[in-house]
Amino acid sequence: MNVSNLRQNPSLQTLDSSSFRRGGVEQGGLKGLFGKGGGLQELIKGTQDLLKSLQAVEKLMQGMKTGGMQKAASPSQGCSPSPFSQSSFAPSAGKAPVELNPSASGPSSMGGTGSAGGSSSVGSGAGISGDAKLGGGFPSALGQYKNAIESAAAKTGVPASMLAAQIWQESRGNLGATSTNGGNGLTDTGLMQMNPNTFKELQGKYPELQGKNLADPETNILAGAYYMKDMKEQFGNWDLALRAYNSGPNGVDRSNPNAIPAGTGDATYVQKVKQFAETIASGKGTLPA
User: What pTM was estimated for this model as a whole?
Assistant: First the structure.
């Protein structure tokens, strides 16, 4: 310490031992200052508490400036509105999916087909595997083909009642029925009115059909069932599969199974087959002659 400073500052000359004791220097020197319970730790803790208090005051002031305190207290303010409207995630409205396969304990729940001009979805097909057994309304005119229909249903997963309904719609059970295909001009034949080009493609995919002829009723039914299976896999539900069967895969409007955008097929085909399938599965009603 500079001597001249002592002379200029008499107060420094009067420092006694008690002053050092109060500063924590005499007892333990620096050890007393920095040791356990020392004054420096208490000073640091006090400074931290003060900073926390200042931060809390700052937040409070900011909230008062923006009116945040009143908004936080009001339940009507809530959170910021979502950029998406609620309807964006709502399930699409419409009729309930239609079950095609009949229940073992009662009539099929396939009802609700409505008029031919309406649009009724069969469903996504995620849970529809089809019943391989025919219901009590199976027409006697198709009796000789019952085993073939149930066998094809079991192999392909296409509901047996729907296959029977398609046979009724396509040929009324007449194995020798023929018609001219509106898409390629070729002759569709047999119970399922199978097109020769389509049958050739199916033979390349399903070895069971190779070496067979469409004049054979079992082959004709199985080929039609395999085609329905393929169309269901392609379009996702039985309604659109029926539309593809009637109008071809290029004649399907995914938003409306009753539409015929390509101009080929029967606009009422899907509804007719579903109505026939309901009659066959439930045993209620009659099929048209």
Answer: 0.57
